[in-house]
Amino acid sequence: MTFISWGFVALLTGVTATPRDPFPFCSECLPAAVYDAPGIGFDLTHSYGTSAAHLVNGSVLDLSRVIASPDYTNFLSRLVDTPRPPALTFLEKWRRSLNKRLGRPATPEVGVLAGVLLSLRDETVAALSPSLGPSFRLDYVAVTGPPLSGLRREDLSDALEYASLRSWLDPPQPGQGLQAGMYPEALGEAHVAVAADGNGLCVNYRDLFMCWDEEERMPSNIVLIASFTRRALYVAAGVVRAPLHWVQPPLVHTTDLKAGLESMAAYGTPSEFWAHIRGGLRNVAQQALASTDRGLTKVLLLGENATNPDFLDALRESVADLIDSQKSRGTVIRESVLADPVFVGARGAAQYARWRQEAPFGCRELPRCEGQRKERVNDIWDGERVSDL
Fold first, then answer.
1. Rounded Cα gap, residues 38 and 41, in angstroms
2. How far apart, in Å, are the Cα atoms of 42 and each of 94, 120, 220, 342?
3. What integer pLDDT is reported at residue 384 of this predicted model?
């Protein structure tokens, strides 16, 4: 994987720093209430949403799972493999703005998305409040999900706003130092699965330039990611080095809404259904391997039905000869290393949220900051929102 050059970064962002320059220091320290707050990740799949928390001590908690409404599943189904929507017209922007001022969702579709986000927010707060205190409020989250070419960025942003949440993936505001283009603006479900598995994570994430240096030296993996739920089969494959880097090469991927576990009844026999599954898995793997002289190094599983024995058999059969080949020898299928495949996407998103809790946009903290926070332990969980600090 080749990362964008520094010259191209400067052209895009106007930043004249080079890898030899130090990342600028922040003028203030993060309060303990921010730094020590859990990083929260949401995963919006085709049929449910999940949340996870990455704590400051490194622990990761699976928090909640919300089964989506039929309106939600139908809405997301329409967004798969549809053309990218055109830019909003002036009238569309005006209508959305008016609805928000009146306290309504920007559009009916935004309301559908917001319904799942509201449920995830409430269940996440309920799960964490016993240990963090009744004053704990959820503000920033990192959201991931499978590719939805027809989803407007504004729809997700407005849905988060309606749920009184903000995204760690929104571009930094003016005056915060380095601007958009230095941090990811989207987290693909396939990439966060690699992050959740502990691959490609820099040690010096609080210093963006040092993190980039680490990422340049990291070994890449040829990864196959398979998400199997009752509504869909999502498969992605390709080269992944640093899954939380701000730019990623595209992966070969497909979303098959006729290959969820609930679709089995539509096939003549179960054997026909599993043959279809094997074909989908193998096709993506073959396309990804066609562009590299290396073989698969990891197979990662996501989704509520990923540990279904018949699915695991289909997966092994579909890539058996690819894994047995000389260039793929040593491939590991991660079906049990992660506690629950249902929460893999949320865990990976929570990893990025953890970084953002500790590392301000556009600068690094002064060395004295950690000591100051330890001296002010009474500030922890004082109920302040990130926006008020």
1. 10
2. 29, 8, 26, 12
3. 43
What tokens does 4 get?
């964008």
Alpha helices in 133-188 (DSSP H): 153-162
3-state secondary structure of 369: helix
Q: Is 388 helix (H, G, I), strand (E, B) or coil?
A: helix
Closest-CA residue to 194 (of 238, 252, 134): 238
Q: Are 53 and 42 in contact (CB under 8 A)?
A: no
What is the C-alpha to C-alpha distance for residues 105 and 103, in angstroms, rounded to an integer?
7
The dihedrals phi and psi of 76, each to the nearest 5 degrees, come to -65, -35
Is the separation of the CB atoms in 335 and 312 below 8 Å? Answer: yes
Task: Report the amino acid identity of residue 143.
Answer: V
User: Using CA atoms, how far apart are residues 232 and 264, in angstroms rounded to an integer?
Assistant: 11
Residue 329 buriedness (CB in 10 A; 0-12 / 13-18 / 19+)? exposed
CA separation for the pair 239, 222 (Å, rounded): 5
Supply the pTM of this predicted model: 0.88
Calculate the dihedral angle through the C-alpha atoms of 262, 267, 269, 272, rounding to the nearest 10 degrees.
-100
Rounded Cα distance, 341 and 83, in Å = 30
Residues 303 and 236: their CA atoms lie apart, in Å, by: 13
Rounded Cα distance between 357 and 346, Å, is 16
Would you state the pLDDT for residue 387?
37
Counting as low any pLDDT under 50, the low residues of the chain are: 1-19, 177-180, 326, 335-337, 378-389
Instruction: Kindly provide the residue ranges of all beta strands, DSSP E only, lying in the chain, ordered along the sequence.
Output: 39-44, 48-54, 60-67, 140-145, 166-167, 187-188, 221-228, 233-240, 252-256, 298-302, 332-334
Please report, to the nearest 10 degrees, the dihedral formed by the alpha carbons of residues 285, 202, 49, 273 taken in order.
10
The vertex-255 CA angle with 250 and 261, nearest 5°, equals 145
SS3 254: strand
